[in-house]
Amino acid sequence: MPGADAARTGATVTRLALASLTTLKVGGEAEVWTCETDAAVRDATRADFRVLGGGSNLLVGDGGVPERVVRLGRAYADARALDATGDAWLGAALPLPGLVRRARQLGLSGLEGVLGIPAQLGGAVVMNAGTRFGEIGDTLQEVELMLDGRVERVPAADLGLGYRRSALPPGAVVLRARLRLTPSTPERVARAEEAVDAARRGQPKARSAGCAFKNPPGDAAGRLIDAAGLKGLRVGGAMIAHEHANFVVNLGDATAAHVVELLENVRAAVAVPLEVEWRRWGLAGGEPAARGWDRPRAEPRSATAGG
């Protein structure tokens, strides 16, 4: 149960179906902590937990998860700290589309490659989100983390950023990120975004979680799936999109079980091994929860105890 201090420290605790908080719109229930202060995040992460950003790049099982789900609230979503200098600390709940738009308005270059990614800044850092035109790690300088009940700052060089991955310490929650963008002009930034936008036009508009599989070395997952003739392949309410073969779309009544079966059917039909790009919660082979920092410690065993 939520601690008595949750409301006092700035947390709202509600039991919700996670389908309502994910872009794929599938997933069972969990206890959701929405935090507006660092103190609330500290309180929320006392027990075992998972961190939810914008809900993209995530597949949640139909049974939900037993751990707390921690979300950062609006206090972490203000883009106004970004000014013409291009060097700013920004809250981890800031949606990337709004951040990209503000950078364009200010004539700041560096975020063109993440145009159209429906993520929050914190999640983008964790996954090093991006496209072939660039990724968030290109502009990231350092992050502020909640780790084991303490706030710490870590340089980007120490985060192990790679292709759609990072090596943040287990149990770390990204609170803020410092970006450094390059002064340009709104017109130049808009022109640079045109190529990214053109590449996005072939993506489906239906509910999805973004690209389902990582690109294997030297190839594209979408091309491989398309070449296998799998566009339109369907399990229940989940389907491989006709517009782009690396997208699974929810036709309206998909369940996580439908999606999992569809992903496995694709992997079985494509000769090249494909790795699922999404985070997976409450599913076999998915990511484990982070351990709370205030877990009760086991009592030391007596020297005379049996066993």
How would you sum up this structure, described in words?
β15 and β16 form a beta hairpin. This protein starts with 5 loop residues before the first helix and ends in a 26-residue tail after the last strand. The chain is built from 7 helices and 18 strands. The protein folds into 3 domains: 69 residues, Uridine Diphospho-n-acetylenolpyruvylglucosamine Reductase, domain 2 (2-Layer Sandwich), CATH 3.30.43; 111 residues, Uridine Diphospho-n-acetylenolpyruvylglucosamine Reductase, domain 3; 64 residues, UDP-N-acetylenolpyruvoylglucosamine reductase, C-terminal domain (Uridine Diphospho-n-acetylenolpyruvylglucosamine Reductase, domain 1, Alpha-Beta Complex), CATH 3.90.78. The radius of gyration is 20 Å and the shape is globular. The longest helix has 15 residues. It has 307 residues and is α+β, with helices and mostly antiparallel strands. The strands form 6 sheets. It has a 4-stranded mixed beta sheet with strand order 1-2-5-3. Strands 6-12-10-11 form a 4-stranded antiparallel beta sheet. Strands 14-17-16-15 form a 4-stranded antiparallel beta sheet. α3 packs antiparallel against α5.
